[in-house]
Amino acid sequence: MSREEKSNMMLSLVEQWQQSGQSQSGFARENNINVFTLRYWIDKSRQENDGGSSFIQINASGGTPVCLRYPNGVELLLPVNTPVVFIKGLIQLF
User: What is the CA 50 to chain-centroid distance, rounded?
Assistant: First the structure.
């Protein structure tokens, strides 16, 4: 069985589980598969349905500057697009 065939078969089983209303362990036992294998494919199915990533890109535009406040009371207001390496260097100064 090719990878694609196995993937299609397991994703089909995930759909059957979702429609069955059974617990994961009960469904796995009834279909002679390891419950952890079923959970793996459930997660894989969710990733495919979510676009494969739980991270989203955000763009900071204009807006609020980054405030770096030292213990001695000195405050630096930096533009939002200030490189992280530069900010790290400023933090290490104190």
Answer: 10
Report yes or no on whether pTM surpasses 0.70: no
Q: What is the arithmetic mean of pLDDT over 4-32?
A: 93
Closest CA to 77 of 62, 65, 85: 65
Instruction: Give yes or no for a contact between 52 and 61, defined as CB atoms under 8 angstroms apart.
Output: no
∠ CA 89-93-94, nearest 5°, is 135
Helices (H), 1-94: 3-20, 24-30, 35-49, 84-92
* pLDDT on residue 37: 95
Detail the DSSP E strand segments found in 1-94.
Answer: 66-69, 75-78
Number of helices followed by number of strands (H, E) in the chain: 4, 2
Q: Which amino acid is at 38?
A: L
Give CA 60 to chain center in angstroms: 20
Return the domain boundaries, the chain. Answer: 3-49, 61-94
